[in-house]
Each structure stands twice: as C-alpha cells, then as structure tokens.
Amino acid sequence: MIVSIASGKGGTGKTTVALLLAAARPGATVVDCDVEEPNCHLFLQPGRGEERQVTVMRPSLNTELCDGCGRCAEVCLFNALAITGKKVLLFDELCHGCGGCILACPPKAVSEAAKPIGVVRAGAATRNSAGTKLIDGLLDVGSPTASPLIKAMKETLAAQGDIIVDCPPGTACSMVAAVADSDFCLLVTEPTPFGLHDLGLAAGVIKLLGIPAGVVINKSDGGAWDDAVADWCAQEGIPILGRIPHSEAFAHEYAEGRISPEYLADARAIWGKLGREGDCR
Ligand code: SF4
Ligand code: SF4
After folding, report:
1. Which of 100, 128, 195, 239 maximizes the CB count within 10 A of its CB?
2. Run of H or E including 6
3. For residue 58, which atom of ligand 2 is closest to its CA?
4. How many angstroms separate the CA atoms of 168 and 175, rounded?
5. What is the pLDDT of residue 159?
6. What is the distance in A from the centroid of ligand 1 to the CA of 58?
7. Residue 27 near residue 162, CB atoms below 8 Å
8. Residue 69, helix vs strand vs coil
C-alpha cells in the first residue's frame, strides 16, 4: 500500500506521522519527497547506500548556427525564450524541458543538454526504526523545479511492501508529484484556524486527484479547534483516522532526533484504519 502524508502547510507534523507509521510497520519504505529540506534522514540516519544524480533535459544553443529568426520563442508555451535584437535568451527557471524549441529551430541551432538538478539517495535506517528503508532526494540549490526529482525517487521504489511518502508542504506541483499514485492520502493538520484553512486547501487538491483521504490531527488537545476540525471533516465526509496528543515531552524528544515509542499504539491503530479505509489500487 502506498500512503502519502500531506498537509497544506509546513510544520504541521507530516514527518512525525510518517516516522511513527514507519516505526509501527517494520519493513516499510519511507520516501522523503521534501527535496528542498529533507529531514527524515536526521531521524533514521541511514547507512551508506545508493546515490545517483538526476538530470533533466534543457535546450543548449549554438550561437554560430542561430540566425535570430525567433521561431523558438514563438513555440515556447512557457515564455522561457526571448529574442533581443538577434540574440536568444533562455530563462532556465521557466523552461519545462518540452523540447519544442529543438524541433522548431530551422538551422538546428538548439540541441538537447542534460542538466543536473539533484541526487536521489537510498539506504537502511540505523536509528529510531532500524531496518526501515529510506529514499530521499536533495534538490540542487537554485534548481527551479522539484517534480522531476520526486518522480525519479519514486521510480527507484521496488514495487513491494508498504510505502510511506512524506510530501513537501503546500499544494503546488511538487506536492502533486509526491501524492500521485498513492492508494491513500493522510492529511495531517493541527487544531488551529490556520491548520483548518490549510487542511481545506490540501483536501481540495487530493479530491481533484481522486485519491481517498483521511485526517490525522497532530498536537490534539481536545479543545474547541479539535471540534472545529472534526465538524469540518464530518461535513466533507473525510474520516479522522487518528489523533496524536499534544505533548511537550514528545516535542523535546523530537527536537533531539528521537521518535518516542509512546505513540506507537496510535500509529498501529492508524494502520488498522488505513487497511479498512484504503481503496488499494
Ligand atoms: S529558432 Fe533557432 S535560429 Fe531561430 S532564433 Fe531560435 S535558436 Fe535561433
Ligand atoms: S524546451 Fe520547451 S519550455 Fe524549454 S525553452 Fe524550449 S520550448 Fe520552451
């Protein structure tokens, strides 16, 4: 089963839930898709494993062949090319690597070039839940798009066992790339007005993608906003699969890179409910 863990904003406890689920399910694989700031490795401390560079296609220009006709800029749907005088400018951060400019260039002045965007790493955890396999990625600083790296990480997965995908925060393309192909999405939220607002955004994206979803309330304190989240979930027909109680002791241990076994029973209960709610594809 592939379970993705998402939330509308950072800091709600996605990684906490992902690591608790991993600790409660020996043999599972964690995929940390927060490639701009991966942090699962800090807790799992994987031993030395595989590492490979990921590249994307980007156009490369031969200025000697270019006559400045502007055809490439005309076909670029993403405005990544501009002509100034007779000179072509490429705005790398806008390029989607579609290859249209290569096909469109009459004198064949544009060719395909592989550009490194980051690395994908894989190894076995040595801490907190020894034996858990961790796959994570590290996006090169300044690289404009995380989605190709996330797709490459998911391609390295052996199609076996339970897979826990820790998604990047927000609801942008990288989150969509991370949740794609999930059997179930766990939406982690906090019982606060901001938490509920961002839960609504994330739930909207997951609904559009047609992925069954449930909610885990992190830092649950049984207060009025717990009730507000529960009311909202009831209204939307989204089940609450777990509540991780607010605990200062847990927060201290987490800050020291330890995952308290105190909530393993809650995590096992979430797995149990996932088995019933999940619409395995
Ligand atoms: S289509 Fe080719 S020749 Fe024309 S401006 Fe673009 S790169 Fe230059
Ligand atoms: S590869 Fe596609 S997106 Fe990139 S510059 Fe060429 S036409 Fe534009």
Report:
1. 195
2. strand 2-6
3. 1
4. 5
5. 61
6. 15
7. yes
8. coil
Residue 78: the pLDDT is 93
State which H helix or E strand residue 220 sits in: strand 213-220
Q: Could you tell me if 33 and 40 are in contact, meaning their C-beta atoms sit under 8 angstroms apart?
A: no
d(CA 247, CA 261): 13
Q: Which two tokens stand for residue 142?
A: 């300044």
The helix-helix angle for 14-23 and 264-277 (nearest 10°) equals 90
Does 109 contact ligand 1 (Cβ within 6 A)?
yes
Q: Is the CB of 81 under 6 A from ligand 2?
A: yes
Give the whole-angstrom CA distance, residue 16 versus residue 198. 18
Q: How many C-beta atoms surround the C-beta of residue 150 within 10 A?
A: 30
CA separation (Å) from 32 to 15, 166, 235? Answer: 9, 5, 31
Q: Which ligand sits closest to the CA of 72?
A: 1
- Note the pLDDT of residue 76: 96
Q: How far apart are the first and last CA of the chain?
A: 8
CA 205/CA 239 separation, integer angstroms: 17
Exposure b/e, 95-131, CB count within 10 A at least 16 = b: bbeeebbbebbeeebbeeeeeebbbbbbbebeebbee
Report pTM.
0.86
